[in-house]
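Researcher: Re-running this chain for the archive, since the previous output was lost when a drive failed. Same request as before.
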Amino acid sequence: NLILVRVFKGVKNTLFGFDAKLLTMKEIVLVLEDQVDFIPSQQLANLCGYSSTSQILKLCKELDGYIKECYPSQEFELIINKHYGIKLVTPPFSNNDQLLDYIVMEDLAYLIYQAVLLERVVPTEEFCQDNFISNSTLQRRIKKINYYINNYGLHITFSQQYFKLSGDELIIRSFSFVLLYSIHRQLSKIPWIENKQNYLGLSQQIADY
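Model: Regenerated structure tokens:
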């Protein structure tokens, strides 16, 4: 399917309206999980493509907040030490998939995509109230998202009453699949999709056909 290939390449190589700092946090986690000891902040900055340590340290402090929200029982811990550097402490035989998903799912772009992919037409005021944002904040982020998705014939129209996703249905479905796969990798890890077992059963039937 040429459409699916085209969309897949686009999602892999662009931000698609997501906040760049959250994607950097994701990169920080991936770097730290490969370390067995503390890593100096300057080395971490270099590995993440930053020239100074101040921005990396700021992002690490924000990341620490996400970790505490995602793992309130503190099985994961980010240690920021002035002398030794930074270290991510994780339980044996664990992975960071839950944390990586959590970081991306906190982004406003993700919440917008979730809403329009599920509903197509979303009440503006209700969405803003549910997510504690202003209409202008929502409008700015939708404009940023449109910058990317317009390349695929998709567009989110914004008004004070509602915002809606429009475009060819095949493109929308292909985009939905590739976007969610690039974030979650597995259907079972998408918390807001209901009746997962039904979808998994249908997928198995198609695979066995």
